[in-house]
């Protein structure tokens, strides 16, 4: 399962966000290092398509897609030099598939220091870039030498060279103009800033009717003008209120969010954005026993997707019966869709589309 690591200064609201997502468990407290060990939590990715399919099939069990979150301890200035939780902290980020920068824009009498998301971002990004710079410097000289005798190392050495130039300026690689192929070449180094990034601005309760206004400078700051850059998403939310709402049952939650003018709440948006950030896609299976959302990567073919369900399904893949979810809902049932000839029969080369409903035929 894909993992997101929360990175932020102490008291940014990482544990509160974690609690809101995981529905309790992590400790939220106004101490710098209340979280020493990373908590790993699982959050369901909300999906109305799955709800519709489950209702259609009257499924006994509904299993949504999920992503993992690691509540990493707070980062302090100097972490790359071993301050605070230092290296342990950085190692935890290294294991994440993507980084969520949590920035504090709320003021609280228990929390020291001014709420200054831009300054907090600067500190975080400097530490991350410095840690990467150190990693790159360690490798660069070796690879340069190796490249002189072994041409196959040349691309890697050049990539390190390019990364070094950016990091030495304090530029995280996700903001740099390094092209995709160079960033791929750097993959084996597990650099902290070579991961996809998402920004959460934790806005105070008093500011909930002007969230867009509060986050505007941050959105501006993270707008990277580059050749083939994916925009860096910035999401504003009041983590505390979202966490409180998350404690309630569904009706209570909707009522509270409604009363606050927060619509469906920011957590759902956050989860969907995070999911898509990693190029994750969903296909479905549906039946009386269970309706389920399965995660795959954009571009995967039917056998690979079948392998997500069970390795035997991939090994013994014969064919898949496929229909897009909305068409199936319109027809009303799987058997009816078959009767009217709307189930397509697809082979090994079929590239699965987001929202497809599959039934796999296999033989082992
Ligand atoms: N007023 C207010 N306080 C918050 C908000 N989010 C977190 N806090 C408080 O700030 C403190 C630190 O939050 P926590 O989630 O533990 O931060 P962490 O250090 O980043 O994990 C706790 O006392 C929280 O209750 C918020 O949106 N508004
Ligand atoms: Mg914490």
Indicate the topology.
Layout: E1 3-8, H1 14-22, E2 39-44, H2 48-57, E3 61-63, E4 66-71, H3 86-94, E5 98-105, H4 117-149, H5 154-168, H6 180-185, E6 197-203, H7 211-221, E7 234-237, H8 239-247, H9 250-259, H10 266-277, E8 280-286, E9 290-297, H11 302-309, H12 311-315, E10 317-324, H13 325-331, H14 334-339, E11 344-346, E12 356-362
Parallel strand pairs: 1-4, 1-5, 3-9, 5-6, 6-7
Antiparallel strand pairs: 2-4, 8-9, 10-11, 10-12
> Biggest β-sheet: count, sense, barrel?
6 strands, mixed
Radius of gyration: 23 Å
Order of helices and strands: EHEHEEHEHHHEHEHHHEEHHEHHEE
Distance between the termini: 26 Å
CATH class of the largest domain: Alpha Beta
Strand arrangement in the largest pleated sheet: 2-4-1-5-6-7
Mean pLDDT: 89
Secondary-structure content class: alpha/beta
Are there runs of 5+ residues with pLDDT below 50, and where? Answer: none
| CATH topology name of the largest domain | Rossmann fold
Which outline best applies? flat
The CATH superfamily of the largest domain bears the name: P-loop containing nucleotide triphosphate hydrolases
């Amino acid at each position: 399962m894909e993992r997101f690591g929360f990175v932020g200064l102490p008291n940014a609201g990482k544990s509160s966000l974690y609690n809101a997502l995981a529905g309790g468990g992590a400790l939220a407290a106004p101490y710098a290092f209340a979280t020493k060990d990373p908590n790993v939590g699982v959050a369901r990715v909300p999906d109305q398509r799955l709800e519709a399919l489950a209702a259609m099939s009257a499924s006994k069990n509904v299993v949504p897609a999920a992503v993992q979150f690691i509540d990493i301890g707070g980062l302090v200035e100097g972490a790359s030099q071993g301050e605070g939780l230092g290296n342990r902290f950085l190692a935890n980020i290294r294991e994440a598939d993507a980084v969520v920068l949590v920035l504090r824009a709320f003021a609280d009498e228990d929390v020291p220091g001014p709420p200054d998301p831009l300054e907090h971002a600067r500190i975080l990004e400097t530490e991350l870039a410095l840690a990467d710079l150190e990693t790159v410097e360690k490798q660069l000289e070796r690879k340069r030498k190796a490249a002189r005798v072994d041409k196959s190392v040349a691309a890697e050495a050049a990539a390190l060279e390019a990364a070094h130039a950016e990091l030495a300026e304090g530029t995280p690689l996700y903001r740099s103009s390094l092209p995709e192929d160079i960033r791929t070449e750097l993959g084996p180094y597990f650099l902290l800033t070579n991961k996809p990034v998402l920004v959460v601005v934790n806005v105070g309760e008093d500011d909930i009717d002007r969230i867009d206004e509060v986050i505007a400078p941050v959105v501006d700051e993270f707008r990277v003008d580059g050749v083939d850059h994916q925009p860096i998403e910035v999401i504003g939310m009041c983590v505390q209120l979202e966490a409180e709402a998350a404690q309630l049952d569904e009706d209570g939650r909707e009522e509270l969010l409604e009363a606050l003018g927060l619509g469906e709440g920011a957590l759902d948006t956050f989860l969907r954005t995070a999911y898509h950030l990693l190029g994750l896609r969903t296909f479905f299976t549906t039946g009386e026993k269970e309706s389920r959302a399965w995660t795959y990567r954009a571009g995967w073919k039917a056998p690979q997707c079948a392998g997500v369900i069970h390795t035997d399904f991939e090994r013994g893949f014969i064919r898949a019966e496929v229909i897009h979810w909305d068409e199936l809902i319109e027809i009303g049932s799987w058997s009816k869709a078959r009767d009217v000839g709307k189930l397509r029969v697809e082979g090994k080369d079929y590239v699965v589309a987001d929202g497809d409903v599959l039934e796999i035929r296999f033989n082992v």
